[in-house]
Amino acid sequence: MNWIFIAVSLVILIAALVIIICDRIKNRRLLNSIESMLHEAMGGSFNASSFNESSLSKLESELSDYLESSSLSAQNIQAEKDKLKELISDISHQTKTPIANLVLYSELLEDASLSEEQKANITAIRTQAEKLRFLIDSLVKLSRLESGIISLERQKTPIFPILQNIAGQLKERAAAKGLDLLLTPTNSLANIDSKWTQEAIFNIADNAVKYTVQGSISFGVTEFDMFVKVDVSDTGPGIPEEEQTKIFGRFYRVSSVKNEEGVGIGLHLAREIISGQGGYIKVSSNCGTSSNCGTTFSIFLPK
User: Fold this and answer.
1) How many separate helices (H) and strands (E) can be counted in the chain?
2) Which of the 8 DSSP states describes residue 49?
3) Which of 151, 140, 152 is closest to 84 using CA atoms?
4) Which residues lie below 8 Å from residue 230, measured CB to CB, with a gap of 6+?
5) How many Å apart are CA 52 and CA 74, to the nearest integer?
6) Tens-place pLDDT, residues 20-44
7) Taking the model in full, what pTM does it have?
């Protein structure tokens, strides 16, 4: 009886070991199959037809279906991006020549013998053409950024040359209004795309020059552990507190300057550029009295 009991126990033990081994082999095959699917999906080469679904487990089958649909979605998204890229390129190309011609011919007409009223009308046409060109250029840039057509290429970049270039572009306009441009040298570096960062800061400084009647526009740089802060400060009319959270919205314009030239896209574009690099923008404005009004935009650039 003891031998029979031992034999039965051995058979049961062997059977249990066989079941365990078979189960492990099955689980290993399942994991290998899932791993293979994921690797192919990550590499962009997933193809559901390469799997024999009749021999797959329910989990494998469902994962295969999910990855196939994800692959198709990614392809559709890329196709839409390609269409958008083509559309943006067409818009940019098709509008450049007509707008450039409007500006050119209006400038030629301004030199002709015209009445004062006619000259005023020509000047208005040129101004609106320039405004339209700026709007289209800004929208094209914004669309390219938001759709991922343009990627921001970040590298360690000196801040001071960027601010010098911006001040150089604004120098003539600031001088015409009697405004001082104040710039202090700095050796600070930030991990940024220099071209796009310069455009973002220029948009902010350009607004400062545009809306400041007297006083100055100053650029200041402060280093922190994780960020370099660039302050663009003006002595302009200031921004009401209730509007400070709205000014980065697309086409939003502060009520006090709605009658001034502008389209309300510059700050929105600036925020998209800075946030796309891992930075952010803050605004503070002092509107206590006319003597101490002003606005400071603080651009935090990652180090």
Assistant:
1) 6, 7
2) G
3) 140
4) 159, 163, 201, 219, 220, 221, 298, 299, 301
5) 23
6) 777 777 767 766 766 666 666 555 5
7) 0.61
